[in-house]
Here is the input.
Amino acid sequence: MTRPTLTKRTLAFSLWAFVLISCKLDTTPKDNTSIIEEATNEVSEIEVERPLWMPYNDSAEVAANADHEKERMRFKFIQSKVLDKNVVFEPLYAEVSQFPSERYELLKPLVLEQDIPAIQSHIKAGTFTYEELVLFFLHRIYRYELPNETTLNTIIALNPFILEEARNLGPNSDGHHPIYGMPVLLKDNIGTQDMRTTAGAIALMENQTNDAFIVDRLKEKGALILGKVNLSEWANFICDCPNGQSAVGGQTLNPYGRRELDTGGSSAGSGTSVAVNYAIAAVGTETSGSILSPSGQNSVVGMKPTVGLLSRSGIVPISSTLDTPGPMTKNVMDNGILLDAMRGFDERDDKSVKADWEEGWYTSGTSSLKGKRFGALKNYVERDSLYRETLELMKQAGATIVEFEPPEVKFDGFLSILNIDMKNDLPKYMETWVNDKEAVQTATVKEVVEFNVQDSLVRIPYGQARFDGILADTTSAEGLKAIKRRLRSAGMSYFSIPMAEHRLDAVLSINNYDAGAAAAAEYPALTIPMGYRETGEPVNLTFIAKQFQEGKLYEMGAAFEALTKARKIPSDYRD
Here is the structure.
């Protein structure tokens, strides 16, 4: 594949030529042929810079998806109508373009698909530096995101100071947290002071904030914030849109099948960017399925932690009841390292807890499935051959698999939690975190709705039915409290009854199939690559346990990962 370069081209004739010629033409009636020839010759010597990225007409690609078997894959647009990728990519291009291809090829087997401890060991040995690690990932981003035929529309912003920050780090991670020097991407609803935080919405395009609490924790430990990634706009709570689409970032595409396979959402850019090795890891957010879904669709490891383990301060909200950030990585080891690096008690977050945590669990190397007891939902066993095959493999490794029917519980009112929470939580976020109230003039859901209808074709091409639903929801404060109590009890019963009856260590699900129940219970869920369908679509096995059992999930997950070694990098993004 040809690497994108800034080039210069010669203009034979253009509007600029027309201007020059017009200035030279004599107004008296005579033959101006020689003047035209002279001006044209001058113009032919003018060299102009071609933009690094060129927009294109995406109508043919949109038309090609018009009859897709999945309605949410029938796109109305792919290319963002408002994002100029040159603004994103040009500031770092001069340095990235000088990174030798030979050096990239040398680093590729040492970095591509490798875990954090392995990469840190190479840096400690002096094989390469943190700056070169950043350049390696930037090389990949520029190589695949600038050409329109390979772009995944996953990068919304790049940290303009990233290389300087990498150069200022010490030579290795001795005495530091393992996340030290590791380039991390953030979902673009997570605040960071060096880049705007848009949530994919044009209403927030100028939203400048301070660092979110979890970003502060990462920076304190020496992590490098590489950039921001696309997402389902407003974290998938504006409309029943294609996953991974936003008015700001365009349509995120799945690297295992561009325009063929769903990216999952709402942390689509976090999933796709990790899948193709654009960074060590990415941070996503979840209310119900927004980490688990794109992790499964992109064959990456995703952790939706217990609500309260990680702070939500500085993150554009849906629900202060159910929201949580979480790590998305290529392997279980890195996932635990990133989760550990973001932890900390935040007095500004009412759900934040000081949870006990086994330090350094990710270096124990003692993970095993032997003797572990897992619950398998009978309807998945009956319907999904890959799930059945995976369960057999786990049995062979010494695990006990208990098939069960989940208890019948009702989750009525779930949507009202999201509606009323967002109606209340969004204005609080706008007041607390938006630095320039003049630049961002939409402070409530109602104001966002009114702003969007002023240019609906660009701002809300798929409508805003879910925002309209927020405004229409009349659930009272007392009614909302009752719904929350009932749903949390229902979610916990859904898992705790079979767990107690069969003495289970975890329940095994697929992708985000039981994300709603886990969200209601506020239980953690770890999803890990399990394999691929005949179509090439990735599928994950999801481990669900009780609150604050993330360490236990990681130990079981690491054993499962070592057993299956299922993840494969997308074939078109291996170079």
Observations:
- The longest helix spans residues 477-502.
- The CA atoms of residues 371 and 399 lie 5 Å apart.
